[in-house]
Amino acid sequence: MSEAEGPLVVGVDSSTQSTKALVVDAATGQVVASGQARHDVSSGQGRESDPRQWWDALCEALRQCGDAAREAAAVSIGGQQHGLVTLDERGEPVRPALLWNDVRSAPQARRLTEELGGAKFWAERTGSVPAASFTVTKWAWLAEHEPDAVRATKAVRLPHDYLTERLTGQGTTDRGDASGTGWWATATEAYDEEILGHVGLDPALLPRVVRPGEVAGTVREHHDLPFSKGTLVAPGTGDNAAAALGLGLRPGTPVMSLGTSGTVYAVSRHRPADPTGTVAGFADAHGDWLPLACTLNCTLAVDRVAALLGLDREAVEPAAGVTFLPYLDGERTPNLPDASGLLLGLHHDTTGGQLLQAAYDGAVHALLGALDLVLDADADRSAPLLLIGGGARGTAWQQTVRRLSGRPVQVPEAKELVALGAAAQAAGLLTGEDPAAVARRWDTARGPVLEAVDRDEAALARISGVLSDAAPLLTRGPADR
Predict the structure, then answer these.
(1) Active-site entry in 25, 239, 274, 361
(2) How many Å apart are CA 107 and CA 141, to the nearest integer?
(3) 266 in helix, strand or coil?
(4) What are the phi and psi torsion angles at 132 (to 5°)?
(5) Do strands 184-185 and 190-191 pair parallel, antiparallel, or not at all (unpaired)?
């Protein structure tokens, strides 16, 4: 047996690129074991993964955790949002999952918005305006391009739902992840029959929405994981809602997450509904709301630029008038699904380090442009910005965020906040606590605060100007270039 003070719980982060598992002491928050295994993702405009590899990766990550995983009393899955998982009558994938960063459904997003009352209708009904990231647009794309796959589909799931169902044998989801589908109504907290009818999706194919604090099920007998039969399974949630739990967020605290995608969000008591589509009006995992803006191009885009230049990702120099919009995979914020990267201001004496800094600036500019829209009107604009995700520990990322935001920046010492949030949710099942309170008891947001510096207004204005002037180029489809 372990020497933990309290029961052990497992928190899982099944992200775009890998699955990570933490075994955590529910009493102290101490991570007693961890494991990780990678996923394969297709390249090109489409982004797909076979869901079965997520399960295989979970098995491998837990194998790496050793005996500690066998002692766990509860488990929770945090997962990448929006992905469309289609299952047949045996529970096997009909086709690879369409992931959140698959932008092929951009035409369907535009059409759905027009066909059902416009942006205001969608924002008021679902909290968000459809974008190519959202599950409803992916289902519409599948119905148009692969009708045989739609006919073969007997269950529709999100990535975290798929893993939870393989644990319990029951089809469940939670309000946080359901709110990112485009077919869950935020006012009624129920599936929207009008939208489902419009896209031809039978609500019987969807999972039951488990409420915060409710047990989703127990681990069934026949499985490949080191859990005992009867181990409690929490509802799980989407990755951003899990990270919010992992930080123990209180309303109004701003967060910027630097990962494959970039996000800015804050917990709010008010149900969001932004008809511009910049802010997605998501629910959080414990009864409040999580207004959020997301970019498709963040750390991977900057790393790709560094690789093209043959530079270390930290080898930046002041950008000196160079502007780079790193929209390598299209973009969601701003909503430019057909865009590609754009570079302006190149001279004979421009260095690789300046180009690299310009890529950082372009990525952070997109996130900061949405931050004020995410925060409630009464939020403290001088409060430290919590910087999390894989990029948060990079000096170049930290300094770019400080320079362009003009805010103090706090970098939590805790790693793997999505998995920690899932673990806090699992611990809440055992203790009866709010998972966010569990995370605050674990002091997960503790970390150094970097002082504010003067905001680089000139760089912000330059990037905004280029973005505005280049709009005709950025909105062209691939066939128009």
Answers:
(1) 239
(2) 8
(3) coil
(4) -60, -20
(5) antiparallel
Output the six-digit token pair for 78: 């945090």
For residue 207, give every residue at least 6 positions away whose Cβ sits within 8 Å of its Cβ, in sequence order, or none.
Answer: 155, 157, 161, 165, 171, 172, 173
Q: Which residue has the tokens 């529910």?
A: 26
Question: Within 13 A of 432's CA, how many CA atoms are on the CB side?
Answer: 0
Query: Would you tell me the crossing angle of helices 352-374 and 395-405 to the nearest 10 degrees?
Result: 50
CA atoms within 13 A on the CB side of 387: 27
Mapped onto helix, strand or coil, the DSSP state of residue 227 is: coil
- H helix or E strand, kind and range, residue 342: strand 342-344
The three-class DSSP label of residue 254 is coil
| CB-count exposure of residue 56 (10 Å: 0-12, 13-18, 19+) | middle
Position 203, amino acid = P
The helix (run of H) or strand (run of E) holding residue 49 is: strand 48-49
Q: Are 189 and 271 in contact (CB under 8 A)?
A: no
Strands 74-79 and 8-14: parallel
Degrees (nearest 5) of the Cα angle 309, 341, 132?
Answer: 130
End-to-end CA distance of the chain: 63
Tens of pLDDT, residue by residue over 244-272, are 999 999 999 999 999 888 999 999 999 99
Q: Confidence class of residue 479 from pLDDT cuts 50, 70 and 90?
A: low
Three-class SS state of 267: coil
When pLDDT is cut at 50, 70 and 90, the band that residue 476 belongs to is confident
How far is Cα 135 from Cα 106, in angstroms, rounded to an integer? 12
The dihedral through the CA atoms of 427, 431, 434, 439 has a sign that is negative
Contact status, residue 425 vs residue 235, Cβ threshold 8 Å: yes
Burial zone of 479 (CB within 10 Å; 0-12 exposed, 13-18 middle, 19+ buried) = exposed
Rounded distance, CA 423 to CA 433, Å? 13
Sign of the alpha-carbon dihedral angle for 411, 291, 359, 98: positive
Q: Express as a percent the part of the chain with pLDDT over 90.
A: 85
Q: How far is CA 344 from the centre of its chain?
A: 30
- Tell me the C-alpha distance between 110 and 67, whole Å: 50
* 174 flagged as catalytic: no
